[in-house]
């Protein structure tokens, strides 16, 4: 029996309050019990893009522990604390267990049946489409949804409802990396694998705090460095000294946003000192400039770089950057026997995120540090399934499944044909990107939105602005989640979903690796897998709108059991039909094959035979990548067949330095940057409910450089006002040599309204990738009082 709603709310409040004061609660699963697991089942970690392979320990049907899988190539048996503890969310008393509805946002929620919930959901979406057209409905999903979920939702929205308003939080995260890969290499996603770590001699970690955000992968790099302290060099480039910097031979600290100049200066040195790979460039590269992608020659590039001498760049960058340091890191980068760059949000979440990505790729193309062992330009993905589910399966407004741009007529028609829907059914125009989508909500242009597995009321930049649209009474909002969140507070309809291991499906991690997790537990109460919810909703929608094509979208999946057969049929359709002949060909990676592998399959994997061996660990290399052979046009060892570059070349881009959208000035003299801490996941909807993690990190604070703190009379623990042109927070101060002088840094997980930093961040975005500049805006800070006891945030629904 589930808890009554009152009881549930009481416990939610009690738990969160207790978490913050460190009280142990009776319903926790104890560690002693964990040791007693009587069976272990395989799956992947629920959290980050590393994609650690794990085993869930069960005692009877009670989850009691998680451990790593030693024979997995992703994590070699390691897991981090979050990975080890997420089984506690499965039996958590706060889990949503029944559909909840309210006609108006000012009213209280009431429990309703699934039948009623799906009726309402169908009626509201149908009404919006009838009265305002297909562009008035939208899906906003997540890089944490299973591939099967994203694929099915986008199919229903695009081919059923005839809208490309299919977006997701990877826009806040990986969009600039996608833009970078496509413009530089002609194909999305990294070329190599984690396995390159053990073969690399130089690591260039820029804008990434791997030690906290990709902790298991970081351990592999650390191990490599410790085993070869002299031969292996680690460079860390970040305006803030983070735990990642500890293993660096050189830490480059610079004014936020100026790394564009740093990267160009590294290229300058590489050319000036003749450290480039002339042969590689001649065979595989061209130089490009501007919106029209005009081809230019090497000399033009060289002249362009004349603006970025190490001397000039060190002036732009500030911090600890000297011309000598730039020269040193450029030499290490170019001359090592294998250089691997790794980056995450410090590069992507910028108004010049795509350019910053291009400038990293440039260095690899110039020096030929690509395709050989230990060499790669390797963007780290944040979420567990941003690659597999969203980038590959059609989860962004401008891309259809298997890396097909919506605007390409023949590709769109191909998808229509594969789905058996009329030609022209999918609109040509891309839908709203994330910021445009929430702006459209503000303007009342979107009348019904389905938000799945994400919490935009907390995770959007400048979130108060977009909460206005969410709060509109004329916008119908569905939120499907496992817990109450900041976003469920704006919902009309809350749908309780199954969690990891309570449903079946695939996650595709950073290194093009798809891994299956099979359902072993029933979800609590009446919670349901999303694929069931989407299918049942589509059937009702078809009826409401009298449109057989909507039904057609789910016809292959009718009557199948949602625990396994349904997701399997969706995966089969996606892989066998949609990925066939594409660069992410996954035809060999059937559920049967995925179950046989300790660690899944890396694409391209067109055949079962290859998939059983693990797939392709390096793209574009003949003898390794079957598609390189298939697409070979000449006898060169590398074949860059990426679909976006018909010339089959890698493009070195001329991208100038440009500052952030909002730079500090006399009124707002500090840079504000935001990011992550090891113990928490994003909005802390999950990790905030795991008491061990909450004890370690109960609230966010503002990191201030000691010199700034001294000047402003701020002492450790003092309450500090952090204010921008958009909003303010009051946070306790942590004073240490982390952020550079003139910069402050805040974790964004804290749900307390006083500390929720996205009220302060800026929603400017990259004109190419549309990814917001979470990493940089201007703020001012001021001490408001001495240390104060902090009010805990109560994660409860407004009722
Ligand atoms: N523990 C934990 N791990 C996670 C997550 C989580 O929530 N918690 N989330 C996952 C997700 S979705 C993501 S996207 C990743 C994010 O992973 P990361 O990007 O590694 O983490 P962040 O803390 O967001 O930011 C990284 C660094 O960017 C730096 N930075 C700020 N401005 C600049 C700049 O101008 N230039 C450069 N070069 N660097 C700059 C910051 O100082 C910070 O140290 O983490 C994933 N892993
Ligand atoms: N200031 C600032 N803001 C940022 C960033 C930053 O660096 N700074 N980073 C941005 C980035 S990179 C990202 S990726 C986004 C992430 O932002 P969000 O996606 O909004 O954050 P999450 O907390 O991961 O939200 C996931 C939600 O899914 C729910 N959930 C968990 N499992 C399931 C499931 O199986 N099904 C369903 N339906 N729901 C489930 C969780 O309870 C949670 O509410 O935030 C962005 N926002
Ligand atoms: S490193 Fe990432 S994938 Fe691995 S256990 Fe930790 S959170 Fe999970
Ligand atoms: Mo992310």
Report what the structure shows.
The protein is α/β, with parallel strands linked by helices. 33% of the residues lie in helices and 17% in strands. The strands form seven sheets. The chain has a seven-stranded mixed sheet, covered by helices on one side. A six-stranded mixed barrel has the order 24-28-25-27-26-29. Strand 20 (505-509) and strand 21 (513-517) form a beta hairpin. Helix 4 (114-132) crosses helix 21 (530-545) and helix 5 runs parallel beside helix 21. It is globular and about 70 Å long. The protein binds ligand MGD (2 copies), iron/sulfur cluster and molybdenum atom. One ligand MGD binds next to helix 7, helix 14 and strand 24. Molybdenum atom binds next to loops.
Tally the helices: what do you get?
28
Amount of helix? 25-40%
Looking at the structure, what is the overall shape? globular
Number of domains: 4
Spatial gap, N to C terminus = 22 Å
Instruction: Find the count of extended strands (DSSP E, 2+ residues).
Output: 29
Defining traits:
single chain, 799 residues, alpha/beta, N-terminal domain of TfIIb, Rossmann fold, Dimethylsulfoxide Reductase, domain 2, 4 domains, seven-stranded mixed β-sheet, six-stranded mixed beta barrel, 28 helices, 17% strand, globular, disordered C terminus, binds ligand MGD, binds iron/sulfur cluster, binds molybdenum atom, electron transfer activity, molybdenum ion binding
A few lines on this structure:
Heterodimer of a large and a small subunit. Component of the nitrate reductase NapAB complex composed of NapA and NapB. The protein has 799 residues and is of the alpha/beta class.
């Amino acid at each position: 029996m589930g808890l009554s709603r009152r009881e549930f709310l009481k416990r939610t409040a009690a738990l969160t309050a207790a978490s913050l004061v460190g009280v142990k609660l009776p319903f926790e699963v104890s560690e002693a019990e964990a040791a007693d697991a009587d069976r272990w089942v395989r799956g992947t970690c629920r959290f980050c893009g590393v994609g650690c392979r794990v085993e869930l320990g069960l005692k009877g049907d009670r989850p009691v522990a998680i451990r790593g899988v030693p024979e997995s190539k992703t994590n070699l048996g390691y897991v981090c604390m979050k990975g080890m503890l997420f089984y506690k969310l499965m039996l958590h008393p706060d889990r949503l267990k029944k559909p909840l509805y309210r006609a108006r946002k000012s009213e209280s929620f009431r429990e309703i049946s699934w039948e009623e919930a799906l009726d309402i959901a169908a009626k509201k979406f149908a009404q919006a489409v009838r009265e305002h057209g297909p562009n008035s409905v939208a899906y906003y999903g997540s890089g944490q949804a299973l591939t099967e979920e994203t694929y099915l939702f986008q199919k229903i929205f695009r081919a059923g409802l005839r809208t490309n308003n299919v977006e997701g939080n990877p826009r806040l995260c990986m969009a600039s990396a996608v833009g970078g890969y496509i413009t530089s290499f002609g194909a999305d996603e990294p070329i190599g694998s984690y396995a390159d770590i053990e073969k690399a001699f130089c690591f260039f970690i820029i804008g990434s705090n791997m030690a906290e955000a990709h902790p298991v992968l970081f351990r592999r790099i650390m191990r490599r460095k410790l085993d070869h302290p002299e031969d292996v060099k680690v460079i860390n480039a970040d305006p803030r000294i983070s735990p990642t910097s500890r293993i660096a031979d050189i830490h480059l600290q610079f004014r936020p946003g100026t790394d564009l100049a740093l990267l160009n200066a590294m290229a300058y040195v590489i050319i000036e000192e003749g450290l480039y790979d002339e042969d590689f460039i001649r065979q595989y590269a061209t130089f490009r400039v501007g919106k029209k992608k005009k081809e230019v020659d090497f000399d033009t590039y060289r002249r362009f770089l004349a603006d970025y001498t190490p001397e000039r760049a060190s002036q732009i960058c500030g911090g600890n950057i000297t011309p000598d340091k730039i020269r040193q890191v450029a030499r290490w980068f170019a001359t090592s026997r294998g250089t691997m760059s790794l980056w995450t949000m410090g590069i992507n979440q910028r108004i010049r995120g795509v350019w910053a990505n291009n400038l990293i790729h440039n260095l690899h193309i110039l020096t030929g540090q690509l395709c050989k062992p230990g060499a790669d330009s390797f963007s780290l993905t944040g979420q567990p399934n941003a690659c597999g589910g969203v980038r590959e399966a059609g989860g962004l407004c401008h891309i259809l499944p298997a890396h097909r741009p919506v605007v390409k007529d023949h590709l769109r028609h191909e998808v229509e044909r594969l789905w058996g829907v009329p030609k022209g059914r999918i609109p040509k125009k891309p839908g709203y990107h994330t910021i445009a989508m929430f702006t459209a909500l503000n303007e009342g242009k979107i009348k019904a939105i389905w938000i799945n597995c994400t919490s935009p009321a907390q995770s959007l930049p400048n979130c108060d602005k977009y909460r206005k649209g969410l709060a509109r009474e004329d916008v119908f909002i569905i939120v499907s989640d496992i817990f109450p969140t900041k976003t469920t507070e704006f919902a009309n309809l809350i749908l309780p979903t199954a969690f990891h291991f309570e449903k079946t499906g695939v996650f595709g991690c950073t290194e093009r690796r798809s891994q299956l997790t099979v359902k072993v537990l029933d979800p609590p109460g009446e919670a349901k897998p999303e694929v069931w919810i989407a299918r049942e909703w589509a059937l009702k929608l078809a009826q409401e709108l009298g449109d057989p094509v909507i039904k057609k979208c789910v016809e292959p999946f009718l009557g199948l059991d949602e625990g396994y057969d349904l997701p399997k049929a969706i995966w089969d359709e996606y892989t066998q039909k949609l990925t066939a002949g594409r660069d992410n060909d996954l035809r060999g990676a059937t559920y049967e094959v995925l179950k046989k592998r300790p660690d899944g399959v890396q694409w391209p994997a067109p055949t079962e035979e290859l998939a059983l061996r693990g797939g392709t660990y390096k793209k574009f290399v003949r003898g390794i990548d079957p598609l390189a052979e298939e697409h070979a046009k000449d006898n060169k060892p590398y074949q860059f067949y990426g679909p976006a570059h018909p010339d089959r070349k890698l493009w070195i881009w001329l991208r100038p330095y440009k500052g952030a959208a909002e730079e500090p000035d006399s009124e707002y003299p500090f840079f504000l940057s935001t990011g992550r801490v090891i113990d928490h996941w994003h909005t802390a909807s999950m990790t905030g409910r795991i008491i061990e993690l909450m004890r370690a990190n109960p609230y966010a604070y503002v990191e201030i450089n000691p010199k700034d703190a001294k000047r402003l009379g701020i002492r450790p623990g003092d309450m500090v006002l952090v204010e921008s042109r958009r909003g303010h927070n009051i946070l306790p101060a942590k004073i240490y040599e982390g952020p550079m002088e003139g910069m402050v840094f805040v974790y964004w997980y804290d749900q307390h309204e006083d500390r929720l930093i996205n009220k302060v961040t800026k929603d400017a975005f990259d004109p190419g990738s549309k990814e917001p500049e979470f990493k940089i805006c201007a703020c001012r800070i001021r001490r408001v009082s001495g240390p104060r006891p902090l009010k805990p945030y109560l994660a409860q629904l407004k009722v």
